[in-house]
Design goal:
The complex is a heterodimer of chains A (about 150) and B (about 500). By secondary structure, chain A is an alpha+beta fold. Chain A is built from three helices and nine strands. Chain B has a seven-stranded mixed beta sheet with strand order 15-16-17-14-13-19-20, with helices on both faces. Chain B has a six-stranded mixed beta sheet with strand order 10-9-8-11-12-22, sandwiched between helices. A three-stranded mixed beta sheet of chain B has the order 1-5-4, with no helix packed on it. Chain B: This is Aldehyde dehydrogenase family protein.
Chain lengths: ~150, ~500
């Protein structure tokens, strides 16, 4: 997969990223950013359109103490980094996997911004390897929302 | 077998119009911004109609119509409201087969299910709430010799309802029937994946419904759903969907201080205790069918029994039989009554399912059957089909923890009662569960121990009206499908009345 990981170094550097974005998803985020301003993701669980990332204008969806900031996507051409959030309880069940935000032709998506474009964000996953797991779970157990608020 | 003709073709029972506008105030109204979106059938992947792409202006117009209609509708006698619901049910029954065909074409599900479940259940649901509202009584409390507290049920006024795509007509009915029975006017937004079948339903019943009592605004969640859910002009929002949007709707509701009911999905365990295999009789056969019900509606059910937990005493034998049974699921044209599994509702739904099959394999889940997209021929070649899939693994895998919403069941074993309940409850969700055993005490104790709003016991996927349906944990708030849903659409008015002639004597 043509995923472009966030910057993140080797041993001794910053921990590896938990979330990445494909070039197609990055291009869509650039377009959505022009129309809607700063963006964020919250990974949904459950029914129908769930188990998929929801893209909102920053501030539209209130994250709180029950959420974890899983990663921050730095995308050229998108002025503000795109934060990727998930409910903490869900993160506990996903934390052994690396997530890549992709996009596919599609239709509905809750209140996610991309649906009217005829496309849908989608998560592709792979297992974190032993080295990534050791470095991530040592250094970054996922920041809780109450420890990290998005800048206004 | 019967193979119904595709809608709009020669010999078809029904046809869709080329375009659907919004239904506002008892008439079709074009979208304020003049935009439409194409609606493909999952059966073929090809568009068959276009639908109004609603925005806040359209929602406001619908709210205007609803507010105009609500006061008079709320004062109609319960008998009159009940009669409306009965007439809707009767009209649907007269057109049951064509409604089933319409629903299959919009959603992709097999017509044998829409004929046997979706439409008959919807018909009965209207009748149930017709009866429930006739039988509903307020209460009075005689507080002392001269003081009486009267409790009246009053409608909320105008409510917003956001409908999912997995049972478009039935889920709309679950929300509409109690809301209308209770005397509310409704603004309803169908799912953008399945926006059309409700309009065919409307074409059959529109003449029965007073203008403005039901308004339908189509469109995308972010463009039409959000203005509805966040409007200060709705007294309640009902939503079926997923957790993040559920939270967002609660957030909007908190801004307006209004109640919500939410149904948000699950990862339902289906428990098969050892004693099932004590005999290979009718009950054993029923239990195997109960396992295979993960493929009902292509697995696109909030309560899909997507985790099968099988007792270790009969694990391999029962699982082998379940794999064999699953292998007999007939996949084919959804309008063929022999077809047991149809198309997933949308392309992104198909892609999501495939992405879960991928991570399931990476995590070491063993594919016992299926595990890939189904490639069908002819006009079905571009439809969204997945093979019924059994994955064997353990409960910490992502495929055991997240709702895939496809025909995929994740299977593991348990050792004894306590282990069964522990695995069953090791999930974020609590909507449905199944318990299969020949022992009544085991069934009772398991049913009470599982943290889920509905525990099917020696059955699964039955949705009769008069059995409350709703979630524990992150599966939602409220109980549909039961007369208690009337409470979710009503206010309580208390008149506290003194019949005493004398002053209090305080002033």
């Amino acid at each position: 997969m043509d995923a472009k990981d966030e910057p993140g170094g080797g041993h001794g550097g910053p921990p590896p990223a938990r979330v990445a974005v494909t070039p197609a998803a990055a291009e869509l985020l650039r377009r959505l950013g022009l129309a809607h301003g700063a963006l964020m993701f919250h990974q949904s669980g459950g029914c129908c359109d769930g188990s998929a990332p929801m893209c909102f204008p920053v501030g539209e969806f209130r994250t709180g103490a029950s959420d974890v900031l899983v990663g921050t996507l730095e995308i050229p051409g998108v002025p503000r980094p795109v934060e990727f959030w998930m409910a903490a309880a869900q993160f506990e069940r996903w934390r052994h996997t690396h997530l890549t935000v992709d996009v596919v032709p599609g239709r509905g998506s809750g209140f996610s911004l991309e649906a009217p474009e005829g496309v849908r964000f989608l998560i592709r996953s792979r297992l974190l390897d032993d080295d990534e797991l050791r470095r991530l779970d040592g250094a970054d157990p996922g920041r809780r929302a109450d420890q990290h608020r998005p800048a206004p | 077998m019967t193979r119904y003709a595709n809608p709009g073709t020669e010999g078809a029972l029904m046809g869709y119009r080329a375009r659907y506008d919004h239904w506002i105030g008892g008439a079709y109204v074009p979208p304020a911004r003049g935009r439409y979106f194409e609606n493909p059938s999952p059966v073929t992947g090809k568009p068959f109609t276009e639908v109004a792409r609603g925005t806040a202006e359209d929602v406001e117009a619908a709210l205007d119509a609803a507010h105009a209609a609500a006061p008079a509708w709320g004062r109609t006698p319960p008998a009159e409201r009940a009669l409306l619901l009965h007439r809707i049910a009767d009209r649907m029954e007269e057109h049951l087969t064509e409604l089933a065909v319409a629903e299959t074409w919009d959603n992709g599900k097999p017509v044998r299910e829409t004929l046997a479940a979706d439409i008959p259940l919807a018909i009965d649901h209207f009748r149930y709430f017709a009866g429930a509202i006739r039988a509903q009584e307020g209460s009075l409390a005689e507080l002392d010799d001269d003081t009486v507290a009267y409790h009246f049920h009053e409608p909320l006024g105008v409510v917003g309802q956001i409908i999912p795509w997995n049972f478009p007509i039935l889920m709309a009915t679950w929300k509409l029937a109690p809301a209308l029975a209770a005397g509310n006017a409704v603004v309803l937004k169908p799912a953008e994946q399945t926006p059309a079948s409700i309009h065919h339903w409307l074409s059959l019943v529109a003449d029965l419904i007073p203008p403005g009592v039901l308004n339908i605004v189509n469109g995308f969640g972010v463009e039409a759903g959000k203005p509805l859910a966040s409007s200060p002009r709705v007294a309640k929002v009902a939503f079926t969907g997923e957790t993040t949007t559920g939270r967002l709707i609660m957030q909007y509701a908190s801004e307006n201080l209004i109640p919500v009911t939410l149904e948000l999905g699950g990862k339902s365990p289906n428990l098969f205790f050892d004693d099932i295999s004590a005999a290979h009789d009718d009950f054993y056969d029923k239990a195997l069918e109960g396992f295979t019900l993960f493929a009902l509606n292509q697995g696109e059910v909030c309560t899909c029994p997507s985790r099968a937990l099988i007792g270790s005493g009969h694990y391999r034998e029962f699982l082998d039989a379940a794999v064999e049974r699953t292998g007999r699921i007939a996949q084919g044209h959804p309008l063929d009554t022999d077809t047991m599994i149809g198309a997933q509702a949308s392309n992104d739904q198909l892609e999501k399912i495939l992405s879960y099959l991928d991570i399931g394999r990476q995590e070491g889940a063993k594919v016992l059957i299926g595990g890939e997209r189904a490639r069908l021929d002819g006009e079905l070649a571009d439809g969204y089909y997945v093979l019924p899939t059994i994955l064997e693994g353990h409960n910490a895998m992502r495929v055991f923890q997240e709702e895939i919403f496809g025909p995929v069941v994740a299977v593991t074993s348990f050792d004894g009662f306590d282990d069964a309940v522990k695995i069953a409850n090791d999930t974020l969700y609590g909507l449905g569960a199944g318990v299969w055993t020949r022992d009544g005490a085991t069934a009772y104790r398991a049913g009470r121990a599982i943290q889920a709003g509905r525990v099917w016991t020696n059955c699964y996927h039955a949705y009769p009206a008069h059995a409350a349906f709703g979630g524990y944990k992150q599966s939602g708030i409220g109980r549909e499908n039961h007369k208690m849903m009337l409470d979710h659409y009503q206010q309580t008015k208390n008149l506290l009345v003194s019949y005493a002639p004398k002053a209090l004597g305080l002033f």
